[in-house]
Each structure stands twice: as C-alpha cells, then as structure tokens.
Design a protein that fits this description.
about 425 residues; alpha/beta; D-Maltodextrin-Binding Protein, domain 2; 2 domains; 13-stranded mixed beta sheet; 13 strands
Length: about 425
C-alpha cells in the first residue's frame, strides 16, 4: 500500500511516500524527496533516519528545503523507518556496503560502526558549532575523532496527571518516599498508578537510581573505566535500581504483564490520556504528542523521584547524525550537516521534539508542561542514559535485563546475565 501526501514549502513540491511493508525486517518506511528539483540537480544526498512521525519529518523536511534553496544543484532525500526496526535495517545496510550518505545512530551503533571504519571523521565541523562541554565529552571517541553530531538532547521523565492527583488529594512526588506513598494510595483504590512501556520506562529508571551518585560526585569517568576493563560489574551499580523496579512490579505500581505488551510513545500514551492513571514513565519528547491528543486533563513532566531526598533527570544526546566513510559525497554530506547544525535549526528541532538544544544557550522550550525538566537540566547533575564513555552496548543490555525482570526472572540471574553481556566489549 502506498500513500501519497503533498507538502508545499517556498515553491518546492515534496512527496511523502509511506510504504507499509518490509525492508530487511523493517516496518513502516517514509521517504521525502524533492521531485521538482531532482531532474535539475547534479548532486544527490541520501539521508536515513528513525524519525517517522509527520510532525518530526516536517521539521527535517524544512531544514532540507532551506538547504536546497541555498544549494540549487543539490537534492536531499530522507527515508525513515519507525522504531527498533530502523536499527536492523541500518545494520543490514552497513554489512552489505549500502550505507546512506547521512544516517542517524545511537550509542551502540557508533561502537560497532566505528570499529568497522564505517563512520567519517567529523572533527573539522566542530570549529563553528558551540557545543556544551558535557556534550563534547560524549562525542569524543578514544581515537580522538568525532563520528557523530547530536542535534537535540532528549530526556526521560515522570508524566503526572495533575487533575487526577488533585481529585484524590495527592501531590506530585518530589522524592522516592513521596512517590511510593502516592502509589500505595492508588493501589489501595484499585488503580495501577504507573503506565510503563516495554522499552525505555524501566531501564532509564534503573540507570537513574544506580548511576546518579557517580554523576553527582563527578566520578562517572573513573567508574566507567573500571566497567570497561571488567574490574567492576554493572550489578555493582545497578543492583539497587533493578531491585527498585522489581519492587514497583511486586507492589502493583506497574502491571508487568501489560508493560511487556506496551510499545513506547504509542500504546503508553493512549493509555495515559484516558485519564485513569496518575503517572507514566516515558520520553519527555512525547509531551507535545500527549498534549495534541487533548487528554482532557492538565499534566506536567518531572524528573524521576527516585532519591530519598530528591529526583534524578536522565538525558541522552539524541538524533545523532553520522556520515558514511564510504560515501562518494562525503564532503557534501558534511556541508549539509554543518547547515543542519545552525542554532536556529537546532532550536526549531528541539522545540518540535520537546527536547533541548545541545548548544551553549538559554533556549526555553515553548511547551510549559516540561519546564520542570528544563530547570533540572540546567541546575542539577543528570544521568546520561547511554554514556559514550561506556564501551559496551549498555542500551541493548538494559533492554534484555528489563525484559527478564518483567517476565519475573530471579534478580540474581538477571544481574549475572547483565554482567556477562557487558563483558562482550567492542574492540
């Protein structure tokens, strides 16, 4: 099935192709191409990503349009695949030598692709981009090269149904004790208090609880060196976080069976907007979508209240862009990235994603529901969900650990499996 939709911007005609089918084990696929200028263009760039929703693609499309207005002899086409299937397709393209000129990566992909010499060095682009020091520390690889550029900083938070809390005489929790007390109250009322998905909800909760003391004391680099060498184990830091997640399931705060079937930023949003649950754990970037669903109640997003005396924000440098080292258009691809990274483009993208700019600025997102997250991001230590100083695929490892936890596997076995997987380090 092929669905066409037309978008006109500043004299350019774009066609949005949404192909429902499979491509190397993939789900939905989008392709945005400027067909009006393509016959005249002498140069073409292909851009592959996992930003699929219309609102997300619209901003990317606008940046592409503006770039092509300045560079009349260039056409840029964007193709997207939704969800985890994107990374399956990306791995397949890399293994078969068919990487696009530009593509989106995550922590685990960078480890693998850089080891295979599949990523171009982007260091020369940094001179004109004012990244914050914390973001720069994430981008620098052990060999001194830069293989990806972040366009946003995403966050993970606790969504709170303010109307439901007020109706029951409860308040937005600011620490672990308060959160547990509110959850206990709702369980007594026969209400499962937390909507959780089968992906990012619990793994970010575990990471927040376990790694925060390292970031608070600025000792994460030292700890991660020990993790990478095998001198320390993940369970040394994450045991308490896994125990907390198990406790939330055992006490009925989270329905483990339902969470296994709940896809992130889709099924979880649909459940939360019904207004029958006080909390949801998911990406802050979904806040705009929740508001657009007109839930019929006021809500806000706050950092995870998992400390005895406070809350923890989990962040990730996000929408990371890389260039193929095998691209015949490598210099043009870098030129496009340099244009993409202009401050006005990043602010527009961050606002669309309910995220933050990775640049040193005081930009305030327009969505008031996430302003508590903004305050935390600017004023407190934040845990990085997939810290680049960790040299094993922690994002995938935590996926497996949380899935085992939701299935009810013994915590000792979960931690042993987690530690064993972490020993397989990309060299």
């Amino acid at each position: 099935m092929i669905i066409y939709s037309e978008v006109k911007k500043t004299g350019f005609l774009f066609m949005l192709l949404i192909l429902l089918g499979c491509l190397a084990g993939c789900g939905q696929k989008n392709e945005v191409v400027n067909y009006e200028t393509q016959p005249m263009a002498s140069q073409k760039l292909t851009f592959f990503g996992n930003k699929h929703e219309a609102a997300n693609v619209e901003v990317i499309e606008e940046i592409m349009t503006n770039f092509m207005e300045v560079n009349q002899d260039v056409v840029v086409s964007y193709e997207s695949i939704k969800g985890s299937e994107y990374y399956d397709a990306l791995q397949n393209r890399e293994s078969t030598g068919h990487l696009d000129d530009i593509f989106m990566v995550n922590h685990d992909v960078v480890l693998s692709f850089s080891a295979n010499d599949s990523l171009a060095d982007l260091t020369d682009l940094l001179a004109n981009i004012n990244f914050s020091d914390s973001i720069l520390s994430q981008m620098q690889s052990p060999d001194g090269k830069i293989y990806w550029l972040p366009t946003t900083v995403s966050a993970f938070g606790l969504y709170c149904n303010l109307d439901l809390l007020e109706q029951h005489g409860q308040k937005v929790p600011t620490n672990l004790g308060e959160w547990q007390a509110v959850c206990d109250y709702f369980v007594e009322q026969g209400i499962t208090p937390i909507v959780a998905n089968n992906d990012i909800s619990l793994k970010t909760l575990v990471l927040a609880h376990g790694f925060y003391p390292l970031y608070q004391d600025n000792k994460q680099a030292e700890a991660f060196v020990k993790l990478n060498s095998g001198e320390a184990r993940l369970s040394d830091y994450l045991a308490d976080g896994l125990a907390l997640a198990r406790d939330f399931c055992d006490k009925g705060y989270i329905n483990a069976g339902l969470a296994l079937q709940t896809n992130r930023t889709s099924d979880d949003l649909s459940e939360f907007v019904q207004g029958e649950t006080p909390f949801m754990l998911t990406g802050v970037w979904a806040a705009g979508r929740v508001k657009g669903m007109e839930p019929g109640f006021d809500f806000k997003v706050v950092p995870y209240p998992v400390l005895p005396d406070g809350a923890v924000l989990v962040i990730n440098p996000d929408i990371r862009l890389s260039v193929s080292a095998q691209s015949t258009n490598q210099e043009l691809a870098k030129q496009f990235l340099a244009y993409f990274m202009q401050p006005e483009n990043l602010r527009q993208l961050a606002d669309n994603q309910a995220s933050f700019s990775p640049l040193l600025d005081e930009y305030m997102p327009s969505l008031s529901e996430i302003h508590d997250i903004v305050f935390s991001y600017r004023n407190q230590a934040a845990v990085i969900g997939a810290d680049s100083q960790i040299k094993f695929p922690i994002w995938n490892i935590m996926d497996d650990a949380v899935e085992e936890l939701l299935f009810g596997k013994d915590l000792t076995e979960i931690m042993q499996n987690m530690d064993d997987r972490a020993l397989v380090v990309y060299q």
